[in-house]
Amino acid sequence: MIPKSFFKQNPEDPKPLKHIIKRKVRFDELDPLNIVWHGNYASYFEEGRIAMGDKYGFGYLDFKKHGVMIPLKKFYVDYIMPLEFAKEYAIETLLYWNESARLDFEYRIYDCENRLVTMGYSVHMMVDLNKGILVVKPAFYEKICEKWKEGKI
Amino acid sequence: MIPKSFFKQNPEDPKPLKHIIKRKVRFDELDPLNIVWHGNYASYFEEGRIAMGDKYGFGYLDFKKHGVMIPLKKFYVDYIMPLEFAKEYAIETLLYWNESARLDFEYRIYDCENRLVTMGYSVHMMVDLNKGILVVKPAFYEKICEKWKEGKI
Amino acid sequence: MIPKSFFKQNPEDPKPLKHIIKRKVRFDELDPLNIVWHGNYASYFEEGRIAMGDKYGFGYLDFKKHGVMIPLKKFYVDYIMPLEFAKEYAIETLLYWNESARLDFEYRIYDCENRLVTMGYSVHMMVDLNKGILVVKPAFYEKICEKWKEGKI
Amino acid sequence: MIPKSFFKQNPEDPKPLKHIIKRKVRFDELDPLNIVWHGNYASYFEEGRIAMGDKYGFGYLDFKKHGVMIPLKKFYVDYIMPLEFAKEYAIETLLYWNESARLDFEYRIYDCENRLVTMGYSVHMMVDLNKGILVVKPAFYEKICEKWKEGKI
Fold first, then answer.
1. Nearest CA to C87 among C29, C32, C33, C39?
2. Which of C92, C147, D18, D57 is the most buried (most CB within 10 A)?
3. Measuring CA to CA, which residue among B58, B57, B48 is closest to residue B21?
4. Residue in B with minimal Cα distance to A73
5. pLDDT tens by residue, C8-43
6. What is the C-alpha separation between D90 and A34, in angstroms, rounded?
């Protein structure tokens, strides 16, 4: 089963970018119920997002180098099944196409038996050093988007 | 301006329960942008929720005493403005009426100038010790709900 | 019983400054053993240290205003008894006299029955904006130290 | 330079067990100074300790299976240099020989240029399910220690 996306897409939009990393549940992420405390998924999603940014050249440091920060506007998690201590899991991160100066990330976490255990999304604005909200994408990211549209990344 | 609720309510439903606590931003909650890291709002909301539970008698330990856990099913945050180091803020927690064995919490965080800086919600299931999902509210919580309906709390 | 200090003092040194704050164990601080995870005491000690700094005028923001940061050099915790969910506790912070440009903090955590549950210390250097280590105290802090020596704070 | 150990050893004691893992600094571990917040080293050390336990068969879950918990008694960190965002580092964990029912772990963190950036230690007691302190090692761990003494692990 392929989970339905949180973001609406037009038929002509390029397919979302996708990246997967694997991690293992840490002891300090557990709560008294012996499962990952719900708030820690913000950290999991962020790890997936950062790994994707590093891969495609639009990571936190890439944006920072160009004087842009990408604070969150919205954050959502849907908890399907819990994760337990020392369990391995995969974080699948997807970036959905958006014409605006905005980043629409989706996350799907799978356990070691490949069951979907958590889904979520985060929406990020782009902000300059004076905390002004960007209305157009910065040039370096626009270039990446062009390649993305041409199917070259 | 009163923010619109995330939860649909019927006209005959009792009004949401409400509780406010005040806190101060801690150093270890900050990120390199010198604002509260977005993932920490899970902790802020939880503090609000726990304080409300303590006040009305349906806290984590009350449910636990009756063999019930209340894991999260959904979690959402809308970031409006950032919070900075040492700033005081208020967490307003609301519990919305629900006929089902489910808890619908909403959160509104206000800064020291009473501006709404964050909104969010969490939806909790009720689960017994065998991890079975409850379909009716446990008796102790049902009693609280009856009083709530009668406007006695 | 007054616990022995971690720091050596000379008989002519002014008495340590002392400050006490009260807190309550949060759910997200617990580990699967249902006690506060050992790493969270860094946060507890920091809360005590910051509250003391605010009281006496040498807090994080005071140092920052004068272009000085106070990173940790050493950190130690002695775990005597665990703390459980929702328990109230007191953090006693002491600052020991030191002629050098260095901050020697000691922490004692007491539970709601006034039993000593944790002790620890942190040693901080003073560093300027170029990350150079200060060898003399900044003027604003030297003034506070003079008052301290004269018993006026 | 080989750093001096925190633990006294006798000449006839078996050499410490050693294990190394590699990690990368995460965004949510940073503080406003753009370096890893000092309290996060408790998590780094724990990761090293858990990886070593998994390798040698005396991990958290191994102890738990035999009804034994290993809470911390002491914890110490010496901060030598800071770690920055996205930097890779190695956590070297050492377990020192101890005749008693106690675990003496030492940690050394090296940056990507192999410079020692942090050292520390943790001392753990062994406790049974009734929270009684063990005076002899549990049988499964004693067996591991015998092999260790014979140089077979």
1. C29
2. C92
3. B48
4. B79
5. 999 999 999 999 999 999 999 999 999 999 999 999
6. 28
Evaluated on CA atoms B34, B37, B38, B43, the torsion sign reads negative
List the one residue out of D48, D110, B27, D41 whose CA is nearest residue C75.
D41
Beta-bridge mates of residue C75: C122, D77
> Tokens 């409006």 sit at which residue?
B80
| CA distance to partner chain B, nearest, from residue A152 (Å) | 33
**For residue C108, which of C77, C75, C85, C71 has the smallest C-alpha distance?**
C77
**Tens-level pLDDT at each residue, chain A (153 residues):** 567 899 999 999 999 999 999 999 999 999 999 999 999 999 999 999 999 999 999 999 999 999 999 999 999 999 999 999 999 999 999 999 999 999 999 999 999 999 999 999 999 999 999 989 999 999 999 999 999 999 999
| Residue in B139, D19, A27 with CA at minimum distance from that of residue C39 | A27
Instruction: With CA atoms as reference, report the closest residue to A52 among A125, A104, A99, A128.
Output: A104
- How far apart, in Å, are the Cα atoms of A50 and each of A76, A111, D37? 17, 20, 19
- Beta carbons of B62 and B68 less than 8 angstroms apart: no
3-state secondary structure at position B134: coil
The partner residue sitting opposite A50, judged by closest CB among D27, D54, D61, is: D27
Q: Beta A102-111 vs A116-125: how paired, if at all? A: antiparallel
ipTM of the prediction: 0.96
The half-sphere exposure of D66 on its side-chain side, counting CA atoms within 13 A, is 17
Distance (Å, whole) CA D131 – CA D67: 10
Query: Among residues C91, C16, C23, C89, which one has the least CA distance to residue C56?
Result: C16
Q: How far apart are CA D103 and CA D46, in angstroms?
A: 13
CA dist list (Å): B64 to B1, B68, B71, B140: 37, 5, 12, 12
- Integer Cα distance of B12 and B10 in angstroms: 5
Is A71 close to B43, i.e. CB distance below 8 A? no
A42 touches chain C (CB under 8 A): no
Hey, are the CB atoms on D46 and C39 less than 8 Å from each other? yes
CB neighbours (10 Å) of residue C7? Answer: 16
pTM of the model: 0.96
